[in-house]
């Protein structure tokens, strides 16, 4: 069938304003949105810019807005949309547009790096590996599926209102290390997150959880960070008595 794609186009180096460009593509109901974008770029307009790599929901590079909802182009099929054969494709909100559907994710990765996304443990390494407690593994397992697609952060209304807020993806990664008993920087991590632009910035609006293409309970994980902060404060307070 023939599908019409209205695609956001903007080249800041050439265009004064963004505009939408229309393309008609032959597609099957089982084709991915990404397949159609590729077809447009390969067969009609090589100037169309978008990111994609794995085409299987692994690399996290093709998050975009499809008919008003944030999703991965490689995870959505033509038949998933009730709008029939008509599609509007836009870049992720929140981030500056580099060109067309490509946005500048530097601020996203800066916040991600700021939470120290690596295991901190200064003890001498054991002879074999550092074994993980199975209970910890179960707790952090959902967070391990994060592909850093930035959908949650783009969807979060707090992130849109407060540029300083760490955002759901960075908080989720902090959760992953906080609840891993092999990491010994828990207290420092909690102290760093105990601020309005940290864990307390989350107002449990759950938009992050709703858009996450990996089905991660992001809001729940952030709430567990807040609980851990409260518990630590209580424990520290008790220790001072
Ligand atoms: S938590 Fe989900 S939406 Fe957010 S970056 Fe990770 S995979 Fe993407
Ligand atoms: S292209 Fe890799 S997640 Fe879609």
What can you tell me about this protein's structure?
By secondary structure, the chain is an alpha+beta fold. It has two domains: 2-103, Beta-grasp domain (Ubiquitin-like (UB roll)), CATH 3.10.20; 106-240, Fumarate Reductase Iron-sulfur Protein, Chain B, domain 2, CATH 1.10.1060.10. Helix content is 37%, strand content 14%. It has helices spanning 33-43, 106-114, 134-144, 151-155, 157-161, 168-178, 186-193, 207-211, 218-240, and strands at 2-9, 19-26, 63-66, 69-72, 86-90, 97-99, 102-103. A hairpin with a 2-residue loop joins strand 3 (63-66) and strand 4. The mean pLDDT is 95. FE2/S2 (inorganic) cluster binds at residues 52-55, 57-62, 72, 74.
Short description:
The chain is an alpha+beta fold and 241 residues long.
Tell me what the CATH architecture of the largest domain is: Orthogonal Bundle
CATH superfamily of the largest domain: Alpha-helical ferredoxin
Unreliable stretches (pLDDT < 50, length at least 5) are: none
Strand content: 5-15%
**How confident is the prediction overall: mean pLDDT?**
95
* Discrete helix count: 9
CATH secondary-structure class of the largest domain? Mainly Alpha
Helix content: 25-40%
Structural class of the secondary elements?
alpha+beta
> What is the string of SSEs from the N terminus onward?
EEHEEEEEHHHHHHHH
Overall outline: elongated
Ends apart, CA distance between termini: 73 Å
């Amino acid at each position: 069938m023939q599908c019409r794609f209205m695609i956001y186009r903007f080249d800041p180096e050439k265009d004064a304003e963004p505009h939408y460009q229309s393309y008609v593509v032959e597609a099957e109901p089982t084709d991915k949105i990404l397949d159609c974008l590729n077809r447009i770029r390969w067969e009609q307009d090589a100037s169309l810019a978008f990111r994609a790599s794995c085409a299987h929901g692994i690399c996290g590079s093709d998050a975009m807005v499809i008919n008003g909802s944030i999703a991965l182009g490689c995870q959505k099929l033509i038949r998933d949309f009730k709008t029939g054969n008509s599609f509007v494709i836009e870049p992720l909100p929140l981030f500056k547009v580099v060109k067309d559907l490509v946005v500048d994710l530097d601020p996203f990765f800066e916040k991600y790096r700021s939470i120290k996304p690596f295991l901190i443990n200064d003890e001498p390494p054991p002879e074999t590996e550092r074994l993980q407690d199975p209970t910890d593994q179960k707790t952090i397992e959902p967070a391990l599926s994060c592909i850093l697609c930035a959908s949650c952060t783009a969807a979060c209304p707090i992130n849109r209102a407060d540029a300083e807020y760490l955002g759901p993806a960075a908080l989720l990664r902090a959760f992953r290390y906080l609840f891993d008993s092999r990491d010994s920087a828990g207290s420092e991590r909690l102290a760093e997150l105990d601020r309005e632009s940290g864990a307390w910035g989350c107002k449990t609006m759950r938009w992050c959880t709703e858009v996450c293409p990996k089905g991660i309970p992001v809001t729940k994980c952030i709430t567990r960070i807040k609980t851990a902060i409260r518990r630590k404060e209580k424990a520290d307070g008790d220790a001072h008595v």
